[in-house]
Amino acid sequence: MPPTDLSPVRRPVARAQGLPNAHYTDPATYAEEAEALMFTTWAGLGVAADVPEPGDAKPVDFLGQPLLLLRDRQGAVRVFQNTCRHRGMILVDTPRRIEGAIRCPYHSWCYATDGRLVATPHVGGPGQNLHPEVDRATLGLIEIRSHVWRDVVFVNLSGDAPPFDEAMAGAIARWADFDRPLYHGGADSRFALDVACNWKLAVENYCESYHLPWVHPGLNSYSRLEDHYNIEAPGLFSGQGTRIYRQITGEDGAVFPDFPGLGPAWDQAAEYLALYPNVLLGAHRDHAFAILLMPQGPEHTQEQIHLYYATPDTDAALRAKNTAQWKTVFAEDVFVVEGMQRGRHGARFDGGRFSPAMDGPTHCFHDWVAARLEARRAAPRAAE
């Protein structure tokens, strides 16, 4: 199919249309977006809590790219291409602890957890573990540029995005008050939702509070639509905030400890940022969360949710209650994003419209998508 017309998306919010249907249903457009939106930016791959101890390794299929998230012997979180430099064999196929070296199951080439090629058995013939034409120093694992912020492991597959601290400077500055250690709640503070929708619909829904009265009546009963405000940083991130945040309490009235050093503005406030392309973050006085949207094709997404606290020893019963509460809230959105996905098969749907007052954050995201796609489409012509 010909490239989609993105000019209506780029208009000011009051006159703009949403992204065309192909951006939610078409495999070729999905592949185009993978290159333009995911591989050339800082995209979320996982969380550092997935590899808590030195030697821990987790393979991740990221839009068809085989990657390996691991913590090296010095404790640094790193990302490598999960591919042996010999014949291209997958090195690690299930999460596990690397006790010695990363050994290829095909011909036993071995790599240190810092990526160095350290053993090439029989490469020069039986019993000959060296060969003058096989230079181990140049055949280490291919490392993927990565950065950890708020425990999220971001990757830049193309290797040419601006430095993370520069690319995400706006979000980092906005949440400077939360520049504190985060502690993952553990096994009871992580869950996943498999959703039959394009990943962008999850971003769009998360950005705005417009749907609260009808989709989240329980939440809206105390944090009302009127208490929310839009967050718009064009080209960078968008989202929403609330001026009314009610801490969860235990049966004995216990609450989670606050993050230290927060100003009074956060006593009853909370914010929720969609960090483009695929990371959704929430910040409250006493806990935080990260949601990674992992595309599984044009019409399927896995949402990986992780909850964090200010101290490593929070009450287990209270953590479980908090996890259950957020699971309920996020599950309430499933019928919406799946319904929009089905609606995107309406051949005469033109992308929809935006409420200038309520949908600004969602339009910010659409405009970012369109801008990056237009730039990618123009690049080959510019090089001619």
Spell out the key features of this protein.
alpha+beta; Naphthalene 1,2-dioxygenase Alpha Subunit, Chain A, domain 1; Rieske Iron-sulfur Protein; 2 domains; 8-stranded antiparallel sheet; 4-stranded antiparallel sheet; 10 helices; globular
Strand and helix layout:
Elements: H1 22-25, H2 27-39, E1 43-47, E2 56-62, E3 65-71, E4 77-81, E5 96-97, E6 102-103, E7 110-111, E8 117-119, E9 145-149, E10 152-156, H3 164-167, H4 169-174, E11 183-184, E12 190-195, H5 199-207, H6 212-215, H7 217-220, E13 228-233, E14 237-242, E15 270-275, E16 279-283, E17 287-295, E18 301-309, H8 316-332, H9 334-343, H10 360-383
Antiparallel strand pairs: 1-10, 2-3, 2-5, 3-4, 6-7, 7-8, 9-10, 11-18, 12-18, 13-14, 14-15, 15-16, 16-17, 17-18
Helix pairs in contact: 2-10, 5-10
Structure in words:
There is one protein chain. This protein is an alpha+beta fold. The chain has 2 domains: 22-42 and 178-372, Naphthalene 1,2-dioxygenase Alpha Subunit, Chain A, domain 1; 54-149, Rieske [2Fe-2S] iron-sulphur domain (Rieske Iron-sulfur Protein). It is 25% helix and 24% strand. It has 10 helices and 18 strands. The strands form 4 sheets. Strands 11, 12, 13, 14, 15, 16, 17 and 18 form an 8-stranded antiparallel β-sheet that branches. Strands 4-3-2-5 form a 4-stranded antiparallel β-sheet, with no helix packed on it. Strands 1-10-9 form a 3-stranded antiparallel β-sheet.
